[in-house]
């Protein structure tokens, strides 16, 4: 593989479904061209940033590197349509708006706020491990178990009725899986926009209800938030809901499913968890590093600047490759080895800086609760077919993980 071929992984959704291809390519780029200009007829040009140090430095410098107008990589028509997107979330915001809007829900996701959910999360973890036990020794771990477990946590937090959970799961998969023929609504290029509109219409009704009948859930906090002495706008509130209701569960599901896949392909790692349950804590963080469900975010330079000796002009964009940064040989010993005891683990799967993931503590707690419940109850476990991964440029992980097992 030459450098030009390696750089194609960032614009090809299929590359993210082929872990060997992607990580071979990004290892080459880290060695030979860690800040690499990518030109493709279907995409506006950008610079791919593949080293951990550079991803951290750009993420830290939010005064120079901003999210607007291109917060994530998409084809040219998507870049052109951004002004027509009906909702605006934290992902699209920069200072001074971003910190103000982030503060609305920040306390709910701090360690103290998340600890209040510990019993509920443990109850849901047991509920879904029980569901796995009821499957008769075979299931699709992603589709049957972990695509639902974090969904129940986050949508319960928002206060959505349980009968709407399947709809939220379907819309999330259509949104993030728009490039995957198994998950996309259809092959129409406007399908993703229609999915966003469906989210907006659903959450607009929720906003009206929570304003008329406020409750003690996060949905009410957002709907009734005050921003600079005025009630939060409906577009911003709907954007807040959409971000939490999608990224708040889909990324965690991807990490937990991809983590089990890694365990089953890494001799001895499952047994290490059986022998030492305390390793679940570091093991879950290793799953998050290994899968890196958020594949990239974009940043655009406000001024002329330099990244690793490469001069970039104001207005040029960089792609921050989190999966590549999380395999950086300068930061991780044996980065291509899955190690449930890895410590320290300086992964950037949650991002860094001003846009550090709000749900970090919740995701870790969900993962720890699930595997603390699962590992002691499994007597044997193996793959029962070939796992398949999403074809997606932005957020992705397994879409099928067939397993065979016996449980106590």
TrEMBL record:
Single annotated GO MF: cholest-4-en-3-one 26-monooxygenase activity
What keywords are assigned to this protein? Answer: Heme, Iron, Metal-binding, Monooxygenase, Oxidoreductase
What family does the Swiss-Prot or TrEMBL record give for this protein?
Belongs to the cytochrome P450 family.
Q: Which PROSITE patterns match?
A: CYTOCHROME_P450
InterPro entries in alphabetical order:
Cyt_P450, Cyt_P450_B, Cyt_P450_CS, Cyt_P450_sf
State the Gene Ontology BP annotations: cholesterol catabolic process
Which named protein is this? Cytochrome
- Tell me if Iron-sulfur is a UniProt keyword of this record: no
